[in-house]
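Sample pair:
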Amino acid sequence: MGEDVGVHHQPDGPAFDVVLILHVGCVVVGLATTLAGAANAARLRTLLGTATPLPDAVRRYFRPGVNWAGRSIYGIPIFGFVLLALSHGAYGLRDGWVLGGLTILVGLVLIAEGVLWPAERRLQVSLATPGGAVAEESVRREAGAMMAAAIVTVVLLVAGSALMVAQP
């Protein structure tokens, strides 16, 4: 019997494997940091309703600075394009699952850059005020926005991962 024209060979080789590990690693780091952000935003919201001071761990999480680990999501398409190149035509930009993954990634970046990370930066500024005084309602609103955006980001990361594994 002849070979099925619609079925591609599975790419392999050490270079492909290393790039695939880096690609998946960016997803895992992105998931972990986004889940940590959602958890800390939720914890912050809960603590604001109490009279207790914010724990050092929460203040440390929201210390000023760029969330570089969260930016690992930018490695996903970079390594994804390298994987396409290393696949020697087995996969391509015209494959529906590749286009679907890119579409999901665009949505993920828009949410992260438009809502998640700006809310995180505003929380960093609010919680870095001398003496620890914070405008509770503003912080609660930003923590809610950060938490919601993080949840949507996690859902998109999981959906994109499922799509990449299934390769329909």
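The radius of gyration is 20 Å.
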